[in-house]
Amino acid sequence: MKIKVSGLTKVYNNKQVLNIPKLEIEKGSLLGIIGPNGAGKSTLVKIIGGIETSTSGLVLFDGKPINSNLYQNMTMVFQKPYLLRGSVFYNIAYPLRIRKVEEEEISRRVEKILDEMDLVEIRNQKSWTLSGGEAQKVALARAIIFNPSLLILDEPTANIDPSSIAIMEKIIKKSNQENGTTVIIVTHNLQQANRICKDVGFMYRGELIEIGSKEKVIRNPENVLTRDFIKGEILI
Amino acid sequence: MFIINGFKEAIYLLISLDAELYHVIILSLMVSLTAAALSSIMAVPIGILMGVKEFPLKKVAVRFIYTMMSVPPVIAGLIVFLLISRRGPLGILGLVYTPTAMIIAQTVLIFPIITGLVYNATKEKGETIQNLGKTLGANRRQRLILLVKELRMNILTAIITGYGRGISEVGAVMLVGGNIRGQTRTMTTTIAMLQSMGEYSIAIALGIILLLISFILNSILLYYQQGDYR
Ligand SMILES: Nc1ncnc2c1ncn2[C@@H]1O[C@H](COP(=O)(O)OP(=O)(O)OP(=O)(O)O)[C@@H](O)[C@H]1O
Ligand SMILES: [Mg+2]
């Protein structure tokens, strides 16, 4: 879905942490958001994802403000995901069960994603016995299983081993390409932004300093703040 | 030695299904079970609501529940006694020295404990669970179900803690029940009375039963802690 943000601000205890006059994210985008700690990245995506309120401003999804129907079509994955008390299978099946999908179909789809994400071996393992990386993979699988129109990821691959990162990036890309899912991914990993994103936005002190194609923003930033930030990272 | 003799007699009373002994045991179990059930029906929804909703005077309500959680049983018993005593506002109901009075007193005692424990758990995890439900597309009703399911261990623990408190307390049931033989004598009041009379065998038998009950309650908790959904 297409997202239009206008006049968005967030104030915590008299401190403004977000100020985004205008931001448009086209349907089917794969947008990376980068920026230093405390820049307001998480705050922005939480407001877009509808689990945080803004102090002022508007977020429109295909022209409409958030409503219960939209919640059915969008999802978020956090760095420290909350897994439900139950097996891996139970967690991934949950979004389908609340959508009243038939059990047979649920089994088929869950098994498929377990296979794609290399989670078959832990299918029946209890969520609280999983390693951090496994939990993050399960959270991603649980988010993607219902083919959302908007997928928001807040540092989904922090503390994950390279082969698992590859698996996760592949499935994120796939859902963007095959289902036209709009993806917003907050990441501290510039290589990752470079590998999977089409567009990148740089945030600094609550503001969106620069946004555009990754070629431009990462390789050839216009703004001096963006340039300094990217220089600080090791980018081959 | 008197302890060993008392112990032997206790075992004998237990396996010979001594009628008076078992009446005491069953009355205790029923009174606390009823009180825990009554409390839970009110306390679980209230605890959850307090945990997820904002309302005026919420802080005061929370303070009140917390204070009530640690109220000494005799005081709870005294308040209930004054209310139901013949000259009290509810005197016409004739509840003094009946099992019903003991159920009321234990409910007064247990209700805040279950409410407080459920409230704490909901406050701690409620928002995270609600947000997760939202991000996965659960509607209001489904999110509430999800919340209860995710907190089921906490809820069970709260109820069992409340039950345990009820069955093990002496002061409140003694005050409102009066420890009347064959009518309102519970395990704890019997132990207290027999101890003062120097008769230990029944006291030991009841002690064994009380220990057994807390062992069983803990086992139930442990069992459910490992169970969950597929
Ligand atoms: N609940 C809150 N109360 C007060 N201040 C908050 C709250 N949440 C966030 N902030 C502040 O808002 C600012 C932006 O936080 P945010 O989490 O959006 O940053 P971020 O860009 O995601 O940082 P990071 O890269 O470390 O995750 C920070 O200064 C933070 O301290
Ligand atoms: Mg963040």
Automatic annotation (TrEMBL), chain A:
Entry's Gene Ontology BP terms: phosphate ion transmembrane transport
GO cellular component: membrane
Pfam families tied to this protein: ABC_tran
Ranges in coiled-coil conformation: none
Keyword Iron annotated: no
InterPro entries in the record: AAA+_ATPase (IPR003593), ABC_SmlMolc_Importer (IPR050093), ABC_transporter-like_ATP-bd (IPR003439), ABC_transporter-like_CS (IPR017871), P-loop_NTPase (IPR027417), PstB-like (IPR005670)
Keywords per UniProt: ATP-binding, Nucleotide-binding, Transport
Domain ABC transporter: 3-230
Record keyword Nuclease present: no
UniProt-recorded Gene Ontology molecular function terms: ATP binding; ATP hydrolysis activity; phosphate transmembrane transporter activity
Protein name: Carbohydrate ABC transporter ATP-binding protein, CUT1 family
Organism: Alkaliphilus peptidifermentans DSM 18978
From TrEMBL, chain B:
Major location (coarse): membrane
Record keyword Cell inner membrane present: no
Top-level taxonomy: Bacteria, Bacillati, Bacillota, Clostridia, Peptostreptococcales
Residue ranges of domain ABC transmembrane type-1 in the record: 25-221
UniProt keyword list: Membrane, Transmembrane, Transmembrane helix, Transport
Subcellular location as annotated: Cell membrane; Membrane
NCBIfam families associated with the record: ABC_perm1 (NF038017)
Gene3D superfamilies, A to Z: MetI-like
InterPro entries to which the protein is assigned, alphabetical: ABC_perm_TupB-like, MetI-like, MetI-like_sf
GO cellular component, one term: plasma membrane
GO process annotations (BP): transmembrane transport
Name the record gives this protein: Tungstate transport system permease protein
Residues annotated as transmembrane: 21-52, 64-84, 96-119, 200-224
Family stated for the protein in its record: Belongs to the binding-protein-dependent transport system permease family.
Membrane topology classification: Multi-pass membrane protein
Pfam families: BPD_transp_1 (PF00528)
